[in-house]
Amino acid sequence: MLDPRDADALPGEADPALRDEIAHATARALVDRARTTEDPAVVERLIHLVENEGLDTVAGLWADAAPVSLPGALWRLYVLREWVRRDLPTVMLRYRLGVEAAPVQEAVAGVPSPPEPGDLRILADAVLSGVFTGDLAVALERAGAFCRILSTGAAFDADSREVADPTGATRMTRGASSLLRTAEELERAGDLWRTGSLE
């Protein structure tokens, strides 16, 4: 990872091409390091990267990366895990609303039925662990399925609030659309990883 002193020495806004290069280099280094180590503490530190380094630090590295890229996929996975960690009641509600309409996605996501709150935390950690120690394509597919379920649940939640809170319902509908787009991006990244073409 770029040393903070080196980052501070960069004049003004970094060149977009340099930022992209740094995003790809750091993402590849993290994944490669985790996949070649036999130390489970390394993987554990990577799973908890946001808690240790802060979401802003991770965002500074990867948030601007192309969605269907290794750094873009990692950014989305960390944001998804952080959402589960910070707002479990909302995620749980959306999951429960969405899972009845998306039973196939539930099987892909790998959450027990009926889910308990702890199951969603376990899924978020397992997906990141899978990125670093398992089949990365499967981890991305599981995250994509999870996002599809949450998207469906958000849409149902928006419908139920349409009369009482039209502004909130519109915001939730946009959120559902964003989650669906994220699911598609993660799934596409998984497809590219399988063919060895995920940059």
The radius of gyration over CA amounts to: 17 Å
Give the CA-CA distance, first to last residue. 17 Å
Q: Average pLDDT value?
A: 88
Number of domains: 1
The portion of residues assigned to helices is over 70%
Please identify the oligomeric state. single chain
Which term fits the overall shape? globular
Helix and strand sequence: HHHHHHHHHHH
Number of beta strands: 0
Low-confidence blocks of residues: none
Return the structural class: mainly alpha
Q: Biggest β-sheet, characterized?
A: none
Strand content: under 5%
Count of helical regions: 11
Please describe what this structure looks like.
This protein has 199 residues and is an all-alpha fold. The chain has one domain. Helix 5 runs antiparallel to helix 6 and helix 6 packs across helix 7. The two termini are 17 Å apart. The model has no long low-confidence stretch (mean pLDDT 88).
